[in-house]
Request: fold
Amino acid sequence: MGILACAPVFSDHMVLQRGKNINVWGIAYDGWEVTVSINGVSAKAVTKNHKWEAVLPPMKEGGPYEMTVSSNGETVTFSDVMLGEVWLAGGQSNMELELHSSLNGEEVIKNIHDVNVRFYYTKKNAYIDEFFYADERNSGWAAASPETTWAWSAVGYYFAKKLSEDLGVTVGVIGCNWGGTSASAWISRKMLETDTDTKSYVDEYDKAMEGKTFESYCAELEDYNNWYNEWQPKINEFYAENPNGLWEDALAFAGPCRYPEPLGPKSPFRAGGVYETMLKRVMPYTLAGFIYYQGESDDHKPNMYYKLFKMLIEQWRSDWKDDTLPFMFVQLPMHINRGEEDRKNWCLIREAQMRVHQTVKNTGIAVILDCGEYGNIHPVDKQPVGERLELQALYHVYHKIDSNKAYGAIYRSCEYYEDGILLSFDHSEDGFEMRDAKDKGFEIAGADKKYCPAAAQLKGDKIFVSSHEVSDPKYVRYNWVNYGEVTIFSKNGIPLAPFRTDRSDLD
Reply:
């Protein structure tokens, strides 16, 4: 017997992308000619350096099929293979949050029937060692059922379920995410080093490893893990008894927090770490596009996020050899920790995300400002998040709806008057809905940039804002807070995106 094998991302129950060349790859002995066949269509490749890659021609949706990979008398067979739409779901913990942990998740799981969705979870490994490949071989695709969906990404599930219903095809999701990761963890070290600012993430890693051997780092990591295994149950105990307790009280009960783990070769948080150990493991599986939910772990460098996020999109598209590959992503919702000062760092992350949408081609932004929860960085209602991502895909990729169904209002321009400022928006043709709240979220300022709460009047597809405290208004901002009430929505139920008109501090 030889060593003929496909990459672990190929398995029974997989979904292959319809309408595009399909990349299939794996290992074999040098010189072996490998034939990949499905539904009467074949492609061949010759193994070099123990690796081969075959490219099947575009095919329409359908299945279930059997796919075979054959060479030198050996055959690998995959059953129950579907042709449909394939999306990669990337990001950190809010993309990772499992279906059973989401709002009504357990009830949803019990009632999953005839859901034409399949899922592959990239193994969460931050370090390639002798156990890595064995663990990876245990991965595989699964079709949606009450038995399989427990740990699926809730956002990924709701996105794919709605997309499958609207397109009438099987939708496959490749989950590739890790809680707590910066965008820098999903970009190659080489790419990060091309820019002075983003190189700082690499420099932080190198500094953390200065003077350490691999053995001393491992000892430090073991000490951290021992602490964490004692500390985390105490934190859980505190919040079980005090659901609305303050973080400082939790620390007084459990002891100081040492998170995150030490940076080193085994850390998923290191620059380029999970890019190497996760993303590259499913690259270049043929995709319709990416969905992405991340940004929380970069709030310590919010002014850098625009550049970092653009770099990530560039990296991923380059790796998949398609500089127009659709990239649909989530703008962060409202959030603040209990008792925390509002540093407005999440405002800057949201602004950076909107700038990326407005400056990078073939991107869509799902505005979920209303989906946040006070004191909870992991809001549990993920259905609207997944479905708003799906609206973006329906508009940008599949051209099934117009922009006014996909988007809520997004700030475009303003006109100045003696008594206020008239705001104009994209995607506001149907007007607005203002929900009851004392504070409408608008602030206005003169040339001194001292902001005061402003009154807001709906004027059809425009909004007029004013304040008796500002006689010569120059600037407006809306929901420029980490956490606050969300009061203004488009008629389609999507909230007005936060914004500020003064962007003089931006590049």
User: Anything to note?
Assistant: The chain has a mean pLDDT of 96. The CA atoms of residues 6 and 356 lie 36 Å apart.
